[in-house]
Amino acid sequence: MKSRNLVRFFFSVLGVGALTTSIVGFAIEWGRYKELFLSFEVLEILSVLFWFIGVGMIFSVIAQMGFVIFLTIHRFALEIFRSHSLWNSIQLFLIIFVAFDLVYLRFLFFEKDGGSIIPYIWLPLFILAVGIAAAYAKQKQSSKKTFVSALFLMFVFTVMEWFPALRVNEEDWLYLMLLPLLACNAFQLLMLPKFQARA
Predict the structure, then answer these.
(1) Range 20-33 burial, b when 16+ CB lie within 10 A, else e
(2) Is the pTM of this model over 0.85?
(3) Rounded CA gap, 155 and 131, in Å?
(4) Which of 31, 54, 80, 194 falls between 20 and 30 A from 23, CA-CA?
(5) Helix (H, G, I), strand (E, B), or coil: what is residue 143?
(6) How far is 16 from 59, CA to CA, in rounded Å?
(7) pLDDT string in tens for the chain (199-residue length)
(8) HSE on the CB side for 34, CA within 13 Å?
């Protein structure tokens, strides 16, 4: 990829992170910030917006670092295993392993009242659903061989990038970080070829 296209790609992902975090942030905290909009407190609204933009850019940088690591691992794995099917099997195993850990370990560490494990299942299912949708779009864009690797990025790497919010386990932060990470990873996955193809 040409350097100018790489810079455009970097700032485009920054924009996706900033925009997504701003929308999600105001949506999550609408009860808190509604009065600012109703009373038209422009400076207060702008200060909150700038904070969300800054946080969103940090999330997007985390997603971009994860994406670079994914591309590196993917290339090395194909060289080492010399087989898409073997590498895909390993990736599927890791997806299942991370999904199980995401449910069971969160339940183990954060459920103190002996409640049900069911509430800990739906977030992994949501990430998996978004990942499958993005992987399907990637498969349509290129070839069937890319489906598992795309799902691996969207699920395993998103969960790893999401780890700071998982440790805190505060509901608002979980959503505030997860949705921008998913948006940034899907954008990178689907838009990289288009930036590479630009003159």
Answers:
(1) bbbebbbebeeeeb
(2) yes
(3) 6
(4) 194
(5) coil
(6) 10
(7) 678 888 999 999 999 999 999 999 888 887 666 766 666 667 877 888 899 999 999 999 999 999 999 999 999 998 988 878 899 999 999 999 999 999 988 888 887 777 778 888 999 999 999 999 999 999 998 888 899 999 999 999 999 999 999 888 888 899 999 999 999 999 999 999 888 877 5
(8) 6
One-letter amino acid for residue 183 of the chain: A
DSSP state of 29: T
CA-wise closest residue to 124 among 111, 136, 107: 107
Domain ranges in the chain are 1-196
Q: Where are the beta strands (DSSP E) in the chain?
A: none
Closest listed residue to residue 106, CA positions, set 92, 122, 95, 93: 122
Give the burial class of 78: count Cβ atoms within 10 A of its Cβ; 0-12 exposed, 13-18 middle, 19 or more buried: middle
Q: Which two tokens stand for residue 46?
A: 């702008």
21: left (phi over 0), alpha (psi -120 to 50) or beta: alpha
**Helix orientation angle between 122-141 and 84-110, rounded to the nearest 10 degrees:** 160
C-alpha closest to that of 95 among 128, 136, 130: 128
